[in-house]
Amino acid sequence: MILSVITTNLFALYAFTSSPKNNQTEQLHQVHKNFSLISEQVSLILREIDQSQKKLAQIEKQLLGYESFDLSRPNIAKELKLFLNPHKLPLGKDSKTGMTEMVSSMGYSCEKSSDLMSQYMNYKVFGNCQDDWSYAQKLILKGCEPLPRRRCFAKSVSSKVNYLHPFPTSLWKPVSNKTVNWSGFSCKNFECLNGKKLNRGCMHCFDLVNGYENQRFVKSRSKNDFLVDDVLALGNGGIRIGFDIGIGSGSFAAVMAERNVTIVTSILLILMLLSMNL
């Protein structure tokens, strides 16, 4: 009797805990179906990401003006073609942006001066850059900024001869004519520059010995002048950096340097004046 009860309970337990073979087959089929759906969704997402990256790259090229450059033209410099082509990232795909290539930065207006740009980019790789500073200034004045990077070395002053005086003596000491590349100017020395009136406020502004430059911003010439010491006093010694847009001959930066203030200057104006007057 006891054996019958135990046997009956075992069969009942088996009946309630076991599942039919057909049910297991259906579950396995459902699992495979779910895996297929997930795989399709992942593939769709990857395709959309790839298409989005291509669209973003196309938009970037259009915004930068690269699409307007016909790189197949024979007069396009080889270095310009190399610069404009996308470059593979050295470490592969970027984990944050998903980018695999990088496009070099160049001003949007550069496309409007493609011939001038080709002349600017026509140089010997890893050699000395051509004496073509006028090309760069013309491109900048046409709105082509930033300019493409070049793989050549700018002409520099020989390191064998020391043409400069130590700071701060160097601020008001005449420098050697050999420190400047004069090929782009009609004047070939500072003596010639001293005799030219570049603009209304720059008469003898390169004469550091007999000129008025070392007194500018220090001594008042009219009741409307703002002197450097008066302006610095407003900051109670807290002014340590400034920005000079016009630059002139650099006298303002020199005066401020004597007072331990660093001046960031823009050089475009002085080059424009030199190119127009020399």
TrEMBL record:
InterPro entries: Prob_Methyltransferase. Keywords: Signal. Residues 1-17 form the signal peptide. This is ATRAD3-like protein. It comes from Medicago truncatula.
